[in-house]
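EI: anyone free to look at a 86-residue chain?
SC: sure, send it
EI:
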Amino acid sequence: MNDHSLFVNSSEGSFATLLVYMDDKILVGNDKEEIDRVKQALNKTFKFNDLGDVRYFLGLEVARSKQVIMMNQRKHALELLRNARL
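SC: here you go
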């Protein structure tokens, strides 16, 4: 199966994954140096703004601690309730 919006780069136990959806992009990985290398390579060709740690992506709220990463759609659910006047 191919996904034309998901790109994975891995080498020697390090990986970086780039997900692109329209004009939204998220870059994640397990090695800061690998992520920085991918960002530098992308910046040679594309405008790539680093907005820091992800807080929202495609309607998902992302919160994390040292032990866990949590994702929810609280904002979306609240908007649905507001639009339904509940």
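EI: The mean pLDDT is 86.
SC: 👍
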